[in-house]
Design brief:
The complex is a heterodimer. By secondary structure, chain A is of the alpha/beta class. Chain A has one domain: Metallo-dependent phosphatases (Purple Acid Phosphatase, chain A, domain 2), CATH 3.60.21. Helix content of chain A is about 30%, strand content about 20%. Chain A has nine helices and ten strands. Chain A has a five-stranded mixed β-sheet with strand order 3-2-1-9-10. In chain A, strands 4-5-6-8-7 form a five-stranded mixed β-sheet, with helices on one face. By secondary structure, chain B is α/β, with parallel strands linked by helices. Chain B has an eight-stranded mixed β-sheet with strand order 7-6-5-4-3-2-8-9, covered by helices on one side. In chain B, strands 1-10 form a two-stranded antiparallel ribbon. In chain B, helix 1 packs parallel to helix 2 (about 95-100). Chain B is globular, with a radius of gyration of 19 Å. The chains are: A alpha/beta, B alpha/beta. Chains A and B meet through helix 6 and helix 9 of A and helix 1 and strand 5 of B.
């Protein structure tokens, strides 16, 4: 599958772009993020993949994405669901993490329509743009591997420079880990993990996070900011309970602390969390 | 472009047609055998037979470690691992840790016993000060002295648990690595988790590893059967790509090896310096069979 590339409305002197990822079936936060981004003046919206998993009622996110004109990248979850694979290929290594991931995946793949699976199958693995004269690459986990985790504390500058070199990019935006961060390298290139909008960032807050990117074409600069968005997380939790999803998932939505997918966390990120 | 391409040089020894040969995809992980084969313990399952008198690989000197780190950084290394032997035997371990953390995230494999309260406090300080993760992997092979000490040595269960308590006291959360010397049952994970909670670790983290039937483990358990070799018929590209040696190399005081498991195998030696050791490798050791079949990775 080829990448998507091209010049866009951000060819204007200045523009604001919203980039998010990790929707995880959370249609309530997705609607809130789209609304927030529009209110803040974002003219283009991008989603870096993983529409399913964790939350309830998978088919509810697709009309929101399409109606808002969100340009989407295919995540590992989207590839698996789209192709009716046996598991999400999330990249976990711990039996407990994999057990919970399988619950999410089986729930999601059974409730995603054939039409939406076809839509997921057709998504590109990455998207290229040129913003402010900078070569921008949008990917899911990393540009070399869809399910690679790029954690802030476990990813060296040297490795990020290699990724940017290998993939001819000045700016890279990814998701997959669920925790947002920005690294500005000493050569002025930048890597941004936009976090996830489907569940909180293991920080004890119930908001979810996405990124706003201000493009200044005259100055040739990109400036990314992480934005928290509050949403009706209690209604989502009720819906999850009604769907019979695990109490552990609901607890995360209600408290902001991860209860699953913990063993993949590096020491720094793990220590900041409750569990 | 810094992507590493295999050189035209042959794998160590000329591989015969039956051998599976694996090229390095990229140098993601650098292993440094900072502790050599010197250890305060002489565990009966040690695959490289480390002990107080085994100096077949000496401590790495700081200059050699720094050179390997610089080379790896130039090649875009993602993370770094220290092992031994026992890394905390090294008289300049603090300097080595600081050098590594200046390049990227660091994991140290240790039995923990030499981490006293002062060292634990220093590690916590470095954990906080570094923007990269500092991980500790502490080895423990049973949830009681009765199950652990026959493998790791008399008194080691108590000593290692006390080390975990010292780490917990400063708020560090090590990964406890368990070698499945006699297999594990369904309750093993929870018993270990409870032991760690009892030691004060609020986030019990565990990694279970299959034993490698070389070194002392070949005598404690059993050696590999001649049938336990990788063949072309037994492997596929996806499985090979997942092997740690597809994206890492080990540097010791004696040169470069494909991985931490094979440093006792002189036939597996790849060269003097990291740059010499990036060529394809032949997966001829029976230990390669364990990595492939069991899905073992020494990474955390």
């Amino acid at each position: 599958m080829s990448n998507v590339s091209g010049r866009t409305t951000t060819d204007r002197a200045s523009a604001r772009v919203a980039i998010f990822g990790g929707v995880y079936n959370n249609h309530v936060s997705l609607a809130a993020v789209i609304r927030d981004a529009r209110e803040r003046g974002a003219t283009e919206l991008y989603c870096l993949g993983d529409m399913g998993g964790f939350g309830p009622s998978p088919d509810r996110v697709f009309p929101l994405l399409r109606d808002a004109g969100v340009v989407c990248v295919q995540g590992n979850y989207d590839h698996s669901v789209g192709n009716d694979l046996d598991d999400c290929a999330c990249g976990y290594t711990d039996p407990r993490d994999n057990a919970f991931a399988q619950i999410s995946y089986d729930y999601t793949v059974a409730r995603t329509s054939d039409a939406n699976k076809a839509w997921l199958r057709a998504l590109p693995p990455s998207i290229r743009r040129e913003w402010g004269g900078r070569r921008v690459l949008l990917a899911h986990g990393s540009p070399r591997r869809t399910n690679e985790f790029l954690w802030e504390s476990a990813t060296s500058d040297a490795f990020l420079r290699r990724l940017l070199d290998d993939h001819d990019a000045d700016a890279l935006f990814v998701t997959h880990t669920g925790i947002h961060w920005t690294r500005e390298l000493d050569d002025c290139r930048v890597v941004v993990n936009v976090g996830a909008i489907g569940r909180p960032a293991n920080d004890g807050r119930t908001e979810v996070w996405y990124s706003l990117v201000d493009v200044d074409s005259e100055a040739g600069s990109l400036r990314a900011a992480h934005v928290p968005v509050a949403y009706d997380h209690e209604s989502l939790a009720r819906e999850m309970l009604e769907e019979g999803l695990p109490d552990e998932f609901v607890e995360t939505i209600l408290t902001g602390w991860w209860t699953t997918c913990l063993e993949i966390l590096p020491a720094k990120e793990r220590t900041r969390g409750r569990y | 472009m810094t992507r590493l391409e295999p050189t035209a040089a042959a794998a160590p020894h000329s591989p015969d047609r039956d051998e599976v040969v694996l090229a390095l995809d990229a140098l993601d992980t650098l292993w440094l055998q900072v502790g050599g084969t010197l250890c305060n313990l002489a565990c009966r399952h040690c695959f490289i037979s480390c002990g107080p008198r085994n100096d077949s690989h000496a401590f790495m000197d700081v200059a050699a470690a720094a050179a390997a780190l610089r080379d790896a950084e130039a090649r875009g290394v993602k993370d770094i691992y220290f092992t031994g032997g026992e890394p905390f035997l090294h008289p300049q371990i603090r300097e080595l840790i600081d050098l590594a953390l200046a390049v990227g995230p660091l994991t140290i494999l240790t039995n923990g016993m030499l981490i006293d309260a002062a060292m634990a406090a220093w590690l916590r300080e470095r954990f906080d000060a570094s923007r990269y993760s500092l991980e500790l992997r502490v080895s423990l092979d049973g949830t009681s002295a009765r199950s652990n000490d026959p493998v790791r040595g008399r008194g080691t269960f108590t000593a290692i648990v006390e080390a975990l308590q010292r780490l917990a006291a400063v708020g560090l959360s090590p990964v406890v690595t368990v070698t499945e010397v006699d297999g594990v049952d369904a309750g093993s994970r929870e018993r270990f988790a409870q032991l760690l909670r009892d030691a004060g670790l609020r986030q019990p983290r565990l990694k279970f590893l299959a034993p490698f039937r070389i070194g002392r483990e070949a005598r404690r358990g059993r050696p590999y059967d001649p049938s336990e070799r990788l063949t072309h018929e037994a492997v596929d590209a996806q499985g090979l790509a997942a092997l740690q040696c597809a994206s890492s190399r080990m540097v010791t005081a004696r040169g470069v090896w494909p991985c931490p498991i094979l440093i006792d195998d002189d036939g597996a030696r790849l060269g003097d310096a990291l740059g010499d050791g990036l060529r394809p490798i032949a997966l001829r050791s029976p230990a390669c069979h364990t990595c492939y079949v069991e899905g073992v990775t020494c990474r955390t």
